[in-house]
Amino acid sequence: KKKQRPVIQFDFSSIGESLVTTEKILEAKIQEYNRLKEESRNPEGMLEAALHTLSLSRLVSQGAAYGGRETKGGYAGKNDIVTDAHCRVSESYLLLGMITQAMQHALEGSARSLESNRNPSPQVLTCVGRAHMATGDIKKAMGLFDEALMAIKDEKGEMAIEQCEILCEIAEAYWRQKKHRESIDMLCDVWTVQESKYGADALQLVPTYLLLGQAYTKLNEHDRATDHLFRAIRISREHHKENTKSFAEACVLLGGCLS
């Protein structure tokens, strides 16, 4: 008599429970990465946290596909969580001056978007643009930044807060080309958008005030520089952020302007 093959049953509930746990760990690692990024003091720690998010995001993505469901936090805009993680890793490598590795992860993030039949999101375009700018290919970087900026404006309007990060990158690109006034104009655009969204004394404006202070300092326009640096320092103190790199840099620059 022919034996019947045993029926193998998978316990998808256990997969789901494990997936939820991994998602929670991933969320915690992303929060750790964001905290380290804000403090700007530990790029090695940022890289370690970013690499952890990449490993965890792959597990979550694979588990979600196997279990037949979308992850809880599976998409941020038009990116999946693995693409986002590649961007974090690329950013961390750039801070450490490891341009080859940064470019590799930026391109992997872009390729993953294309493989999923999605156009690269503004975040991915900006990530790849940063990597190209680090190699000295300013023209390529500017093209990617412009593409990212137009995508945000088309989707969310001229005053979308999401454009500020890209505008700062464009300002940096202008500065590297010694187009100092264009760079400052771009930073002033960032200031306008952020102020309309958060208010003039919001913590989110501190990096912009610092960048403007740096720019005016390099042009020897110390009165304008001190105005922005004083704002950066005052707001940081009001929010108890004296332990950040931005606060330290603002204090050093202000001391130079006043000496």
From TrEMBL:
| SMART domains xrefs | TPR (SM00028)
- The TPR repeats lie at 206-239
Q: Quote the InterPro entries the UniProt record gives.
A: TPR-like_helical_dom_sf (IPR011990), TPR_rpt (IPR019734)
Q: In its keyword annotation, does this UniProt entry include Oxidoreductase?
A: no
UniProt entry tagged with the keyword Translocase: no
Keyword terms of this UniProt record: TPR repeat
Pfam families, per database record: TPR_12
SUPFAM superfamilies, A to Z:
TPR-like
Q: Which domain of life is it from?
A: Eukaryota
TM annotation in the entry: none
Name of the protein this chain belongs to: MalT-like TPR region domain-containing protein
> Native species of this protein?
Lotharella globosa
